[in-house]
Amino acid sequence: MTDVLIFAPAPLLTVTLEGDHPGGDLHVHSGGQGVWQARMLRTLGRTVAIVGSFTGESGRVVQHLLGDEGIEVHPVVRTGRGPAYVHDRRTGQRTVVAELAGDPLSRHDLDELYAAVLREAMAARIVILSGPADEGILPDDVYRRLAADLRAEGVPVVVDLAGARLEAALAGGVTLAKVSDAELREAREIRGDSVDEVVAAGRRLRDAGARSVVITRAGEPLVLIDGEHARLVHVPRMQEVDPNGAGDSLLAAVVSALAEDQPLLEAIALGAAAGALNVTRHGLGTGDPEAIHRLRARVTIEEVGDDDVQVVTPRPARGARGGGRPMSTVLITNDDGIDSAGLHALAAVAIDEGLEVVVAAPASEASGSSASIIGADHDGHVHMSRREIAGLDVPCYAVRAAPALIALIAAHGAFGDVPDAVLSGINRGANIGHAVLHSGTVGAALTGGSSGGRGLAVSLDVGMHPVAHEWAAAAALARGILRPLLAAAPGTVLNLNVPNRADAAGLRPEPATLAPFGIVQTTAAEAGEGGVRLTVADLEGEHDERSDAWLLATGRATLTAITAVGETALPDGLSRS
Fold first, then answer.
1. Beta strands across the sheet bearing 356-362
2. In terms of DSSP H, where are the helices of 279-360?
3. Cα gap 89→284, rounded to integer Å
4. What is the rounded CA–CA span in Å between residue 161 and residue 141?
5. DSSP assignment letter at 123
């Protein structure tokens, strides 16, 4: 799946004269709003595809240049004149030598572009609708139609448009709209530059069809409208070299974060940092990913009209890939014990995702311990010792306690920072149905959720006599859940079960209900004065085809959101009227 698809109706060929020596240097690049956004997305490690028209000789050159940058291209190739410009920047200022608008798109060209966007959007996490440099390239109503059709398919849509194009896109409905105060002023949406006036304009755009609105303000704190919230986003001002492309870098960085299911405020902070740093460079849509993530730690966000400032300060991510990801702390535990290969596999993917990881697991097996807090001595002391685990360059502890107690003391800072989530597993055996009540793996995840964090229980359905344990398959599916879990509300707890097959890594976990118990159930085989002998028996009868037990038995991976203890209504006769 592609992270981001960009609709760029007519990418440009850009030719720029640079340098202060006689003659200077000639730089030839692909350009235009969508291309500059794609370039920043690639800088931040995202996979990007562009759908656009490529016209004549210049179009062939642009298509080739995009491929050289690692940007996937879905072209509509046509004859005629393509858009281009020649700029002279040898004096330090950008001087226009020539600008060519290019030929308008024909009805046939538009039909091909439209179909290509809809086709490729089905394989993208998020879509950006960008505009061409010239107003006459395509009708404004194309943006309304695209926004409406993509929204109907459940694809998030982000737009960076102005004027009639923005109005059209809002009529279709968008996830996020970005516009500048200068563009609002030109559209007569605002007259001055007061925060109150800009906020009011942003709320009108929200009401017109945008879930959230970002308004940039040329060096001043940008305005974010998100639902009923209005916020100012502050970022340190940089010495300006070239302001062009700052808004494109900002939007691209926001989308980069949203494509990873990061919260909106985190995404806006990253975008503000990328836009601020872009003005310090000559290249449009370029940046240093490490500098962007470090500057993001200095971004502050405050409610308009509120004296309390919310500071967004994500820490540099250890081992982060693709320019870094937001740091979150996770506890890795299980009920199979510290030496379990499943525990090590789950820790490895969390580390690889750039999370701050602490491993703390029972010193010996604690299966079936549910949410027990057994482990503390009579004086309240919990014994633990540091362990070295091959391939895991993170703190690891063997703890003489049940996994739920480990999760509980982690929530009180026993291992350093309080974890944002407890990742429990990978368990040797499925945890399905209402039998999860007895699982130590699930008990630890539930304790994480009830302690103000989040929880994920991961189990591999190995059966009674497994030939092999496909830990990597279960770890791969867990990896895809980590970011959405961390972006979810505190208290969220998920239960993932994976078939014990190598090709299970390619499965998509299916939402499942909890079966009444499980595939098997413990029963009393014999009862006498001296005790009871227990045995495990298959459950008879039909299974609910929506349940985790049935889906797992038929080879599917399952995902269920579960809750810890909660209250319900008293029986009749015991409640007061």
1. 384-386, 396-399, 356-362, 329-333, 421-428, 454-461, 493-499, 558-562, 510-511
2. 289-296, 341-352
3. 13
4. 13
5. T
Chain centre distance of CA 220: 28
**Size of the chain in residues:** 577
Q: Considering 126, 141, 164, which residue would you say is the last residue of a domain?
A: 126
Residue 125 CA to residue 41 CA, distance in Å, equals 13
CA torsion sign, 350 to 352 to 358 to 360? positive
Classified as helix, coil or strand, 307 is coil
Q: How far apart are the C-alpha atoms of 4 and 12, rounded to whole Å? A: 20
Has residue 541 been placed in a domain? yes
Structural domain contains residue 103: yes
Q: Which of 82, 109, 126 lies at the terminal end of a domain, its last residue? A: 126
* Inside any domain, residue 51: yes
Residue 26 token pair: 């000639």
Of the CA atoms within 13 Å of residue 125, those in its CB half-sphere come to 17
Could you give the C-alpha distances from 523 to 367, 527, 539, in angstroms and in order? 18, 11, 10
Does residue 235 contact residue 276 with C-beta atoms inside 8 Å?
Answer: yes
Residue 499, domain extent: 329-562
Residues 276, 234: Cα–Cα separation, whole Å: 10
Q: What is the CATH number of the domain that holds 360?
A: 3.40.1210.10
- 520 forms beta bridges with 538
Whole-number Å distance between alpha carbons of 155 and 139: 22
Q: What is the CA radius of gyration of the chain?
A: 28
Map tokens 């009868």 to a residue: 541
Q: What is the pLDDT, as a whole number, of residue 537?
A: 54
List, in sequence order, the alpha helices (H) in 279-327: 289-296
- Which H or E run contains 422? strand 421-428
**Which amino acid appears at position 138 of this protein?**
L
Residue holding tokens 């572009």? 113
Q: Identify the pLDDT of residue 280.
A: 60
Q: What CATH number corresponds to the domain at position 104?
A: 3.40.1190.20
* Ranges in the chain, pLDDT < 50: 241, 285, 306-326
Tell me what pLDDT residue 317 has. 36
Q: How would you class 192 by CB atoms within 10 Å of its CB: exposed for 0-12, middle for 13-18, buried for 19 or more? A: exposed
Residue 215: asked if its preceding bond is cis (omega within 30°), the reply is no
Q: Determine how β-strand 48-55 pairs with β-strand 2-7.
A: parallel
Helix orientation angle between 264-278 and 289-296, rounded to the nearest 10 degrees: 120
What value, to the nearest 5°, has the Cα angle with vertex 92 and ends 89 and 98? 25
Burial class (CB in 10 A: 0-12, 13-18, 19+), 515: buried
Closest CA to 523 of 511, 537, 510: 537
Strands 493-499 and 558-562 turn out to be antiparallel
The predicted structure's pLDDT at residue 311: 42
Q: Is the dihedral of CA 545, 549, 554, 555 positive or negative?
A: positive
Domain total of the chain: 2
Q: In the 8-state DSSP scheme, what is residue 135?
A: T
Classify 370 in phi/psi space as left (phi over 0), alpha (psi -120 to 50) or beta.
left
Residue 256 is assigned to a structural domain of this protein? no
Residue 94's pLDDT is: 78
